[in-house]
Amino acid sequence: MSAANIVIALTKGRILEETLPLFAAAGIEPAEDIFKSRKLLFDTNLDNVKLMVIRGSDVPTYVEFGSADMGVAGKDLILEYGDEGFYEPLDLKIATCRLMTAEPVNRQPSLDRLKVATKFTNIAKRYFAEQGKQIELIKLNGALELAPSLGLADAIVDIVDTGRTLKANGLEPRDLIADVSSRVIVNKAAMKIKHAVIRDILGKLRQAVEAGG
Ligand code: PRP
Q1: How many domains in the chain?
Q2: Pairing of strands 41-43, 86-91
Q3: How far does residue 159's CA lie from ligand 1's centre (Å)?
Q4: Distance of CA 158 from the midpoint of ligand 1 (Å)
Q5: Does 181 contact ligand 1 (Cβ within 6 A)?
Q6: 149-162 per-position pLDDT tens digit
Q7: Same domain membership, residue 79 and residue 45
Q8: For ligand 1, atom 8, which residue shows the shortest CA distance?
Q9: Which of 54, 166, 172, 191 has its CA 20 to 30 A from that of 118?
Q10: Residues 163-191 pLDDT 10s
């Protein structure tokens, strides 16, 4: 019997540079240089495994609906999408950063309703609701760090890595919402139907993570 076909959705961009070496250590390598191609779907050295390369925010969608059997996405995007629709069996421990609130340096707490700018609207809504704080949400898609200095928002919810972007824009980190790293997610039906192949890939990836850690 031939091995089940598996499509794995990878997040493009910086995460991909850290993902591919782990996949190579696990015995999965794209048949051509992903960084030099405009293709979105790649053959690999394994006949039954293909790699898709898409935006991280689309990885959970492809995996939940089964167009991809497995995926690699940042925990931030998984939390924003909602983590009910798939399994999350493995932390690849790459692309680590923190999801935080940030405010202008030395901003004093105000009694007014906090205006929060973010692209992570679901996460922000949940977080401030848990804190019992009423907020006004402002959805932005990038350059969030500008919003407070231009008076659009009092605070932001964003990814912090080195903290340099915050500092350069007169902001400081405040509350930690979640530690972020890249996770492997698996379609629920595929986990049952293609169990042997998926378990094998997960086992090899786990070994690669442990060897590199
Ligand atoms: C992220 C984030 C911050 C920056 C933080 O942006 O939105 O702007 O990194 O990194 P630092 O703490 O090391 O300064 P990214 O470059 O990933 O692009 P994005 O705006 O598309 O999220």
Answers
A1: 2
A2: unpaired
A3: 6
A4: 8
A5: no
A6: 999 999 999 999 99
A7: yes
A8: 165
A9: 54
A10: 999 999 999 999 999 999 999 999 999 99
Look at ligand 1, atom 18, and give the residue with the nearest C-alpha: 142
Distance 120 CA to ligand 1 centre (A): 13
Domain-located, residue 124: yes
Q: Do both 132 and 162 map to the same domain?
A: yes
Could you tell me if 112 and 90 lie in one domain?
no
Distance between Cα 145 and ligand 1 center (Å): 10
* Cα gap 90→98, rounded to integer Å: 18
Which residues span the domain enclosing 110? 97-178
- If asked whether residues 65 and 49 sit together in one domain, one would say yes
Q: Is the minimum distance from the CB of 141 to ligand 1 under 6 angstroms?
A: no
Angle at 18 between CA 145 and CA 191, to 5 degrees: 105
Q: What is the CATH number of the domain that holds 86?
A: 3.40.190.10
Q: Say if ligand 1 is within 6 A of residue 163 CB.
A: yes
List Cβ neighbours of 68 (8 Å cut-off, separation of 6 or more).
7, 8, 9, 52, 59, 62, 187
Q: Measuring from atom 15 of ligand 1, which residue has the nearest CA?
A: 159
Judge whether 27 and 204 are in contact, CB under 8 Å. Answer: yes
- Among the residues of 139-194, which ranges form H helices? 164-168, 188-193
The Cα diameter of the chain in Å comes to 67
Same domain membership, residue 84 and residue 23: yes
Cα 160 to ligand 1 centroid, rounded to whole Å:
7
The fraction of the chain above a pLDDT of 90, given in percent, is 93
pTM of the model as a whole: 0.94
